[in-house]
UniProtKB/TrEMBL annotation, chain A:
Residues 659-679, 945-974 are annotated as: Disordered. This is LLGL scribble cell polarity complex component 2. Residues 273-372 form the Lethal giant larvae homologue domain. The keyword Cell cycle applies.
UniProtKB/TrEMBL annotation, chain B:
It is found in: Cell junction, Tight junction; Cell membrane; Cytoplasm. Residues 132-225 form the PDZ domain. Gene3D superfamilies: 2.30.42.10, Phosphatidylinositol 3-kinase Catalytic Subunit, Chain A, domain 1. Keywords: Cell cycle, Cell division, Cell junction, Cell membrane, Cytoplasm, Membrane, Tight junction. This is PAR6B protein. It comes from Aramus guarauna. Residues 234-252 have a biased composition (Low complexity). The lineage of its organism: Eukaryota, Metazoa, Chordata, Craniata, Vertebrata.
Length: 999, 347
């Protein structure tokens, strides 16, 4: 107690603590949860993604990323980059506009909010009068045109957001010259689209939702052309030369309109319903891209036949006779095309299509035949199947790293080898200090290997365990296998797959030995697989063993799921990790703990019924131990069966809908899948609500008794070479900790290497410790004579660690959810303890030994315990004296799944899920910090008639604000603009006068 | 058997010596016995420590009648008030135990066999409006039996009265420990748990703290009913009605931290089963080679000196009997542990 009331006042230690520990949330990995808007700047080559929670994230070249958060936490509806600026404007669903800019600060760029603005109408006007529906940043970079629900277009000056009232384009002015009969039929209604003429910045195209499109002359403040559309308008797109534009409509049609000076009210050139003749869904966005060979790319979103494909989220690409409808598994938020931004280029020549779907980012290479997808270096969809567990391995040896990459590259052959097209900004962060792997286990039975060394978390290799088992899901059941002549020509793209064929395949525990390349994975139906890395694909039989954890216990009946059926005979495995041993626990309860000792060639596994040890060299079960308490009936029914009748759901359908947190309630349209998910979610919400109602707001205070359920649940397994029996001889040992506060220690006899295959491994129970507070044991650790944790298997053999001190007396550290206790070995007597729960009321959720290096000196480092509690606090506790060093609030305590997903690294960093698809990376160390650090410079515009200022964007920004400076125009039209300005002094003067007049 | 011997009244010595003397004069050196005497009211009272031994000697007038019974077949009911005025006198009870079997009394055990259930402590350092209650939990025979809830209470702050969130007792389980003590009631506000303030902690945190301390739970409450508060000067315990004189100096300063430190140390020990032997409690890894017992004794002496005062206990026990014997019982390696934790999975 004293240690808490009077925390260490040792000034030396306090100083050292400052050099060792520091808490930072450094970077978010993965895919933003609930994206709602997409923007792209061809000038900066940066992409921006806005989310429903008001976050805005900018991505450029790998390692270049920025994040901003709107204070309002409102949904980001639209994102528009200001042409040729390091600035962007966001529109939120509360109708507020925000100006963000990238500014350099101490050598790196930062994203900051500069201004905010809410458009206000005259007093008494309805809110719809100022509800912004369309935003057009003008290429002059001085004004924004804001289309509203009322049909009026307001003009605001940048960056001050001053409304230029005299320049407002009212719907009355627009309607003045519209033919009577057309005008009578429909009013203007809301402004659906605003598009600037690609060649003439004085003209903007205004599209109203009822179908009327007008070309507005900014100089003379009048309509020059009327285009009388008959269908409800969705979007507009100018062709590059400005001679035509294309409009897309609610009925699934698109229309080409000519723009010429002789006809002020032209008829459409072409009107087409690409997926007709039956009623089609709306085409919500369209691109018309010209190419050198004259065959354009027409790319549009939606437009599928309403009845049969109305539920698909598609984007179609039409190029001459080639047509593909890319079919996404989640709703398409928005997309853009990367095309030639060289202002002098005559054609668009699209190179890639970037699609932001609700659950993933898909980039399609339009230059390569077959339009393959591009493997994104970031924004990985971590949740393409729900993450069920994660495991981090630090400092991977180069050899293993290369082998994993090579195995992964064989899987990625169907990807395009186009370099990542979004490559703005420069990554100036130092190279990651070491190679780190993050392994995620998924519900569909896969393990994904992520490169977690740096800021960009990207997929190296994907391992599937499904092949070992016979599942009821038909492997050929692919809804998207369609023949050549099928119409529409749908092609499934992306990796997000919300369905799990069989939840029993789910991965629960992973253990990778980085020295030997042995990998153990364990799953939901009691399956434990031991794998070896093989650089070639191979066909072999997986040795199969069963471990009956109930042994001679009588009268128990497992009511949970059945064990997985295995495939008979040899199975073909692709290069990478290939299983060679399968142990199936009986009853097939979820594996709750796993340990692998690659030197002794042993794997230990535990479930809610007991634990077992398997010799994967001799392929022999060494022993099993039942940890069930006679009164523990619940364990037998199977933990899953209580939550949800799994069997029932399996019977009904193998396509179980993932119980993701993806909120589909707000989904506007969609039927089919979306509706199913919605239904499942609604049901889940209801269940959760019911549970909440049942739980009283009062809490019962009762001492834990041994009769509590799940006391036998094995929480942790640990191999150690230590003094278990006597202080003269150390021996291999296996330690297991249960939910009921029991620790079992088994003495192992592993034959020496030369007789390893001849003699059996033997095990004998040596000790059993019952913690009186009966809290679940979450960690077991042996400290050597120098009070250093024992090294990992093979660590010493690879000269990466000092061999443990076998002279001094060893100590055993048992971490329960409530206490930390140090015992002496071999005679177990308690030495020290720290009662966390008794003092703080918090419980240990995760604990790891982490090595902390000093940021001041290279030669000092120490081992401490990094602890995450149920309150989301992170505490650092010293070893071996168990003194609380420091604590940081990290995760909200309500975020149970975030706390459950947390994984610490060996060097004081960690990851936890902030949404099903995003890992937050944090660092507790002053020394090991991985965070984005990057610079975005204004790209140089090579123009000879304009004094270009290279000294950073601030100057450039200031400069560009001065009137008449049009030199840094948006590239796609900039060069041509320049010509126009230079060749026509009259135009320049006119623009200047307009702008001055506007002020 | 009757023996008559003399003692020097002015220098009675220690109970241990007296006990030895009794064993010696009766020539029963290895037999455990219960010692009793009749006081001036004719009550048969026990002699089992220095205090009541001295008291007994002082009542000798000049003769002191001492009764000795073998511990195994001791008749505890013989002790107590009015024992000598009953129709059947004590002597016959003592001498003819078979007589007694026909008429079983409610067994009242010796003070050291009592265990405290609860106590009000720290009366001298707490405001009168607060009450610090210690609940002793043994085994699993009786549940602690109360519920807590979130609520709000009014505090006086520099800015005037302010509503702050608090934790309250919401329900007492009938027959539970909390209810049987009578010291806790529904709507009492919980202020501290084992010396740690609960303000700023969530209901779940407080729940976990209470459960983690359930073996020796000390909760400080502001009783909803403030009429039964301890009146400081008379030092009587509040609601139970029973009262005892405190036999120890009351002015000894008591530091909360000290107190808690000792609480911390006095809790239960874990159990180890070596190879496939018998379960044992895990000893403290002490720097000395003292046995568990002697270590315990030392700690206890330490505790009583550090605490320096005796809480007015709920049971009418004297200090030594109440505190030491109870602690001893908990620590006794083979006396209680198996019984308490009879659920150890044996091999």
């Amino acid at each position: 107690m004293r240690r808490f009331l009077r925390p260490g006042h040792d000034p030396v230690r306090e100083r050292l603590k400052r050099d060792l520990f520091q808490f930072n949330k450094t970077v978010e990995h993965g895919f933003p949860h609930q994206p709602s808007a997409l923007g792209y700047s061809p000038f900066l080559r940066l992409m921006a993604i806005g989310t429903r929670s008001g976050a805005i994230k900018l991505y450029g070249a790998p390692g270049v990323e920025f994040m901003g958060l709107h204070e309002e936490n409102n949904t980001v509806m639209q994102i528009h980059f200001i042409p040729d600026q390091c600035q962007l404007v966001t529109l939120l669903d509360d109708n507020s506009l925000h100006l963000w800019s990238l500014k350099q600060h101490s050598g790196a760029s930062e994203l900051r909010e500069e201004h905010r603005f809410t458009l206000k109408g005259p007093p008494g006007s309805p809110p719809s009068a100022t509800q912004i529906t369309a935003v057009l940043p003008h290429s002059s970079r001085e004004v924004l045109y804001l289309g509203t629900e009322s049909g009026n277009i307001f003009v605001v000056e940048l960056p001050t957001f001053t409304v230029l009232e005299d320049r407002t384009i009212t719907s009355e002015a627009v309607l003045q010259r519209v033919p009577e009969d057309y005008c009578n039929r429909r009013s203007c209604e809301l402004v659906e689209a605003l598009r600037e003429h690609p060649k003439n910045p004085d003209q903007i195209l205004i599209g109203y939702s009822r179908g009327l499109i007008v070309l507005w002359d900014l100089q003379n403040n009048k309509v020059t052309h009327h285009f009388l559309g008959s269908q409800q308008l969705e979007n507009l797109y100018w062709q590059r030369d400005g001679s035509k534009f294309i409009s897309c409509h609610y009925d699934g049609s698109y229309t080409q309109w000519p723009v010429s000076s002789d006809n002020r009210q032209p008829e459409p050139l072409e009107n087409l319903v690409p997926y007709g003749p039956f009623p089609c869904k709306a085409i919500s966005k369209i691109y018309w891209q010209t190419t050198k060979n004259g065959v354009p790319y027409i790319i549009f979103q939606g437009g599928m036949p309403r009845a049969s494909y109305g539920d698909r989220h598609s984007i179609s690409v039409v190029h001459g006779s080639q047509q593909t409808a890319f079919d996404f598994t989640s709703r398409v938020i928005d997309f853009f095309i990367i095309f030639s931004s060289e202002p002098t280029a005559e054609f668009d020549d699209p190179s890639a299509m970037v699609v932001l779907a609700e659950e993933e980012l898909v980039v399609i290479d339009l230059k390569t035949a077959g339009w393959p997808a591009v493997h994104p270096p970031y924004l990985a969809s971590l949740h393409c199947s729900a993450i069920t567990c994660s495991h981090h391995v630090s400092n991977i040896p180069l050899k293993l790293w290369e082998r994993i990459i090579s195995a992964g590259s064989k899987q990625n052959i169907h990807y395009s080898n186009m370099p990542w097209p979004i490559d703005g900004g420069t990554n100036i962060a130092p190279d990651p200090p070491q190679r780190d792997l993050l392994l995620t286990g998924h519900e569909d039975g896969t393990v994904r290997f992520w490169d977690a060394s740096g800021v960009c978390l990207h997929l190296l290799y994907k391992l599937s365990t499904v092949r070992v088992f016979l599942t009821d899901a038909d492997p050929n059941d692919n809804m998207n296998t369609l023949g050549e002549d099928e119409w529409p020509p749908l092609r499934k793209v992306g990796t997000f797959d919300p369905y799990s064929d069989d939840p029993r395949l789910g991965i629960q525990k992973i253990y990778l030995c980085k020295y030997s390349g042995y990998l153990a994975v364990a799953g939901t139906a009691g399956q434990v697989l031991v794998m070896e890395l093989n650089d070639e694909d191979a066909e072999h039989v997986v040795d199969h063993a069963e471990a009956d954890l109930l042994q001679d216990q009588e009268g128990y009946r497992w009511k949970g799921h059945e064990k997985l059926k295995t495939r008979d005979g040899a199975v073909r495995f692709e290069a990478g990790f290939q299983p060679f041993v399968l142990v199936q626990c009986q009853p097939p309860a979820v594996v709750t703990s796993l340990a692998l000792h690659s030197e002794w060639k042993l794997v230990a596994f535990g479930t809610s019924h007991g634990f077992g040890l398997f010799d994967h060299q001799q392929k022999r079960l060494v022993f099993v131990k039942c940890t069930l308490h006679p009164s523990d009936q619940l364990a037998l029914e199977g933990p899953l069966s209580r939550v949800k009748s799994l069997k029932k759901s399996l019977r009904q359908s193998f396509r179980r809908i993932r119980r993701s947190r993806v909120s589909s309630r707000k989904r506007r349209g969609g039927s089919g899948n979306a509706a199913e998910v919605q239904e499942a979610n609604a049901k889940f919400d209801q269940d959760a609500l019911q549970e909440m109602e049942l739980a009283p707001v009062q809490r019962k205070i009762e001492a834990r008794s041994a009769e509590d359920s799940f006391t036998g649940f094995v929480r942790t397994l640990y191999f150690a070479d230590t003094f278990l029996r006597d202080s003269s001889r150390h021996c291999p040992s296996l330690w297991a900790g249960t939910n009921g506060g029991t620790v079992y220690a088994f003495c192992l006899r592993v034959p020496p290497a030369e007789r390893r295959m001849d003699e059996p491994v033997r095990a004998e129970q040596a000790k059993e410790i019952q913690l009186m507070h009966r809290a679940p044991v979450v960690g077991i650790l042996v400290l050597d004579g120098r009070s250093t944790p024992l090294p990992e298997p093979l660590e010493v053999a690879h000269d990466l660690s000092k061999s443990p001190d076998m002279q001094g007396s060893h100590q055993l550290l048992v971490v329960s959810e409530e206490q930390f206790k140090v015992f002496t070995l071999p005679k177990v007597s308690s030495k020290l303890k720290l009662k966390l729960t008794a003092l703080e009321g918090c419980r240990v959720r995760k604990v790891t030994v982490a090595n902390f290096g000093s940021c001041k000196t290279d030669d000092y480092s120490e081992n401490d315990l990094a602890v995450l509690t149920n309150l989301g606090d992170i505490q650092i506790i010293s070893l071996p004296f168990l003194k609380l060093q420091i604590r940081y609030p990290c995760i909200r305590k309500e975020d149970v799944s975030g706390i459950a997903s947390c994984v610490f690294t060996k060097y004081g960093q960690g990851f936890y899920l902030i949404s099903p698809s995003e890992f937050e990376r944090f660092s507790l160390s002053t020394k090991w910090l991985v965070e984005p650090r990057c610079i975005v410079d204004m790209p140089e515009v090579t123009s000879n008639n304009h004094v270009h200022n290279k000294s950073g964007m601030e100057n450039a920004a200031r400069k560009s604000r001065s009137s008449g400076d049009y030199g840094e125009d948006e590239r796609k039209s900039g060069r041509l603009m320049e010509h126009a300005l230079l060749n026509d002094e009259k135009v320049l003067k006119e623009i200047q006068s307009t702008l001055e007049g506007g002020r | 058997e009757f023996r008559r011997f003399s003692l020097e009244r002015s220098k009675p010595g220690k109970f241990e010596e007296f006990y030895g003397l009794l064993q010696h004069v009766h020539k029963i050196p290895n037999v455990d016995v219960l010692v009793g005497y009749t006081d001036i009211h004719g009550d048969l009272l026990p002699i089992n420590n220095d205090d009541n031994y001295h008291k007994a000697v002082s009542t000798a007038n000049p003769l002191l009648r001492i009764f000795i019974q073998r511990k195994e077949d001791a008749d505890y009911s013989a002790f107590g008030t009015d024992t000598m005025t009953r129709k059947k006198n004590v002597l016959s009870n003592v001498l003819r135990p078979d007589n007694h079997k026909k008429k079983p009394h409610i067994v009242i055990s010796m003070p050291q066999d009592f265990r405290p259930v609860s106590s009000i402590i720290d009366v001298d350092i707490l405001p009168e409006t607060h009450r610090r209650v210690r609940l002793y939990k043994y085994g699993t025979d009786k549940p602690l039996g109360f519920y807590i809830r979130d609520g709000s209470s009014v505090r006086v702050t520099p800015h005037g009265l302010e509503k702050v969130p608090g934790i309250f007792i919401s329900r007492l389980v009938p027959g539970g420990l909390a209810q049987s003590t009578g010291l806790l009631a529904v709507n009492d506000e919980v202020l501290e748990v084992n010396g740690i303030e609960v303000s700023g902690k969530s209901l779940d945190q407080v729940t976990d703290m209470m459960i983690a301390n359930s073996r020796n739970l000390i909760i400080t409450v502001r009783p909803a009913n403030q009429r039964n508060n301890v009146v400081r000067n008379s030092r009587t315990s509040g609601s139970s009605g029973q009262s005892t004189e405190s036999s120890l100096p009351s002015s000894t300063p008591n530091i909360l931290a000290n107190f808690l430190q000792e609480e911390d140390e006095s809790d239960e020990e874990d159990i180890i089963i070596e190879d496939s032997g018998e379960p044992q409690q895990i000893p403290k890894a002490a720097s000395t080679s003292e046995s568990l017992e002697s270590l315990t004794q030392i700690e206890l002496l330490h505790e009583s000196t550090q605490n320096g005062f005796l809480p007015s206990t709920e049971m009418n026990l004297s200090h030594s009997a109440g505190s030491i014997s109870m602690e001893y019982e908990v620590r006794d390696p083979d006396h209680k542990s198996l019984e308490e934790d009879g659920t150890i999975i044996t091999l």
